[in-house]
Amino acid sequence: MIQSLRRNLSIYSAVAEMAAKTRLAYNMWVWADFVVTIVSMIVFVYFWRAVYAGTATLGGLPLSQTISYILLARLLSPLVETRTIFFFGFMIRQGQIAVELTRPLDMQLRIMVETFAELLVFLVQRLPLFLLAWLFFGMRLPTNPALWAVFFISLVLGQGVIFLFDWMFACLAFYVTETWGLSVVRVGVGSFFSGALLPLAMMPGWLQNIAAAMPFAQALSVPVSFLSGISTVADAPRLWLIQIAWLLALLLLSRIVFIISVRKVTVQGG
């Protein structure tokens, strides 16, 4: 059993290493993303300054706290703008899904390992933008190490939640012939209800209830709330429990949905 565990650890470590190297290989994409993110931060900062021109607080948040939240949300927004269903659709159209299903590895676990390896590289690549936001755009970051610790734990849990939801949603690719439209809908809904565009505290109560019933906020709004001062270290156990509940429920559902959906797979040309 120990030898099997070591072998699996070695295999998935190699998978993670390859995923990290693949992400680092696309330098032009990284620089283009830097430019787009900087422009996005400028637009959002001036927009919210204009919104606050006639008021001191919105949704109980002062301007400085909203700016910090929005900048953090813009920096981390790619984490909820995933297109797993588009990836599934591509594999099915190209026939690659047959190769994936015959590999001696758990497909879901392998792609999850790749996702978390890419998450680590993404955070490292984002450090210069964090520095720019702090120096020039007024983003305030906590000095309490405990807040950073609960943020990273919440971020990892949230990424697990959104990965499993996207895996389940991507199973629709087995039933449709075109996934681009579904991918666009997923990104739009995810961006809005994750709190990537505005703090959820500013939404009407009924919209907040809808957001709470969806997994998107667990991936962005909940982790960012720690660094922006909306949530405290004392709130962490309660928020972690909610994220863990989402994680366990979606883990079970995603496995069941995939097992059922994969029976529908057809590869073009055969």
Overview of this structure, please?
The protein is mainly alpha-helical and 270 residues long. The model has no long low-confidence stretch (mean pLDDT 90). It is globular and about 60 Å long. The protein has helices at residues 2-25, 27-51, 63-76, 84-94, 96-102, 107-136, 145-170, 180-193, 205-212, 216-219, 221-227, 236-261; strands at 57-58, 61-62. α2 (27-51) crosses α6, α3 (63-76) crosses α11 (221-227) and α4 (84-94) packs parallel to α7 (145-170). β1 (57-58) and β2 (61-62) form a beta hairpin.
In short:
With 270 residues, the chain is mainly α. 73% of the residues lie in helices and 1% in strands. The protein has one domain (2-264).
What descriptors fit this protein?
270 residues; mainly alpha; 2 strands
Spans of at least 5 consecutive residues whose pLDDT stays below 50 are none
Helix content: over 70%
Shape: globular
| End-to-end separation | 40 Å
Biggest sheet descriptor: 2 strands, antiparallel
β-strand percent reads under 5%
Overall mean pLDDT stands at 90
Look at the helices and sheets and give the structural class. mainly alpha
What's the order of the H and E elements?
HHEEHHHHHHHHHH
Number of strands: 2
Oligomerization category of the chains in this entry? single chain
Using the CA coordinates, give the radius of gyration.
20 Å
Helix and strand arrangement:
Layout: H1 2-25, H2 27-51, E1 57-58, E2 61-62, H3 63-76, H4 84-94, H5 96-102, H6 107-136, H7 145-170, H8 180-193, H9 205-212, H10 216-219, H11 221-227, H12 236-261
